[in-house]
Design a protein that fits this description.
Shape: elongated
Number of strands: 9
Distance between the termini: 38 Å
Structural class: alpha+beta
Largest sheet: 7 strands, mixed
Oligomer: single chain
Order of helices and strands: HHHEEEEEEEHEEHHHHH
Strand content: 15-25%
Number of helices: 9
Helix content: 25-40%
């Protein structure tokens, strides 16, 4: 079956090759429509101060997020990295450069979401700064407080949903009229990768492919696929859009992959919480690790993996090295 101890399924990197010519033209049409929306957002002028809703509230989500829960933004998931990060208390360091990129990306997302929402083409959970009401809709203006002369802009909140133990929040849910609903995800990038074969990154595709069936079930609305919008930090007008339509079969595989990752996360959690740390459990986790060679690791990890020197290649000897490294690091 699809759910096994190994990473199986299909490569999203070559997903376009699965579709006939008429569908290839269809996703180019989708990319063009989203480009038009983003270009419209680039020309919008709004008050300098963004609206803040009285009671920050989002789509209800009762799930409690533990440190090890797999999130689509971390897909494809690796249980070995999960164990390492949890047992070392996530003690990763940041350089000035990486801290800069992270903070710029966060700020850019808030700007993109606000101005794209003002085009009236995005479903969101809008909160009114005046009356405090929240509503999931396309219009960014409060229907209760707005008049024919004055429109009251609402604060945009991302839609949220969960499937099992997996939590998802979408940057945007585009409504493209006759072409239906499409998940949108904004990614800050650099001009150096614009128009290159590097985009769209495989990790980003795995992330959005997980979002589609999760939100389809949560909202009870058909979602046709996803679009990744890459925006250079130094010139937002040089953005590019990559749209990927998802068939029912692709959605089924995405759900199966999400369930697989959840099971792997459960196993990793059980090891972390067990003070005796049985080697047998650690061996099972290592058998399910994401990468088997350096080429695969480079494909999945844009910025490299700190475990690669002791984790790869996947041979019995490297497994022993990895076990020794992990047990030594957590003592």
């Amino acid at each position: 079956g699809f759910i096994s101890g190994k990473q199986q399924g299909f490569s999203l990197a070559v997903v376009h090759s699965y579709f006939p010519r008429n569908l290839m033209e269809h996703y180019k049409k989708i990319e063009s429509k989203i480009c038009d929306i983003f270009n419209t957002a680039l020309e919008i002028e709004a008050p300098e101060k963004a609206p803040l809703s009285k009671k920050p509230k989002k789509l209800a989500s009762k799930i409690t997020m533990g440190p090890g829960r797999p999130r689509p933004s971390g897909f494809p998931y690796c249980p070995v990295k999960h164990v390492y990060k949890d047992l070392t208390h996530g003690s990763e360091t940041l350089s000035l450069r990486s801290a800069y990129y992270l903070s710029v990306g966060t700020a850019a997302h808030l700007v993109f979401q606000r101005f794209v929402a003002l085009t009236g083409s995005v479903w969101g959970n809008y909160g009114c700064p005046k009356c405090g009401t929240f509503e999931i809709r396309k219009s960014p203006y409060c229907p209760k407080c707005s008049t024919s002369k004055i429109k009251v802009e609402c604060e945009y909140h991302e839609l949220e949903a969960s499937y099992g133990a997996v939590y998802a929040h979408a940057d945007a849910l585009f409504d493209l009229g006759d072409d239906g609903l499409w998940i949108g995800d904004y990614k800050t990038s650099s001009l150096a990768v614009r128009g290159s074969d590097m985009l769209p990154y495989l990790k980003n595709q795995y992330q959005c492919a997980a979002y589609v069936p999760i939100f389809e079930r949560a909202l009870n609305r058909k979602i046709n696929g996803f679009a990744l919008i890459y925006v250079p930090r130094d010139n937002p007008k040089k953005f590019e859009v990559h749209a990927v339509p998802m068939s029912d079969r692709m959605k089924e595989k995405s759900v199966a992959r999400t369930l697989l990752y959840s099971k792997q996360a459960d196993l990793a959690d059980s090891y972390v919480k067990n003070k005796s740390r049985p080697v047998e459990t650690l061996n099972k986790i290592i058998e399910q690790k994401l990468c088997t060679d350096h080429a695969t690791c480079a494909k999945y990890e844009q910025t490299g993996c700190s475990l690669a020197p002791v984790c790869l290649p996947a041979k019995p000897d490297s497994n022993r090295k990895l076990i020794h490294f992990l047990t030594k690091e957590i003592q």
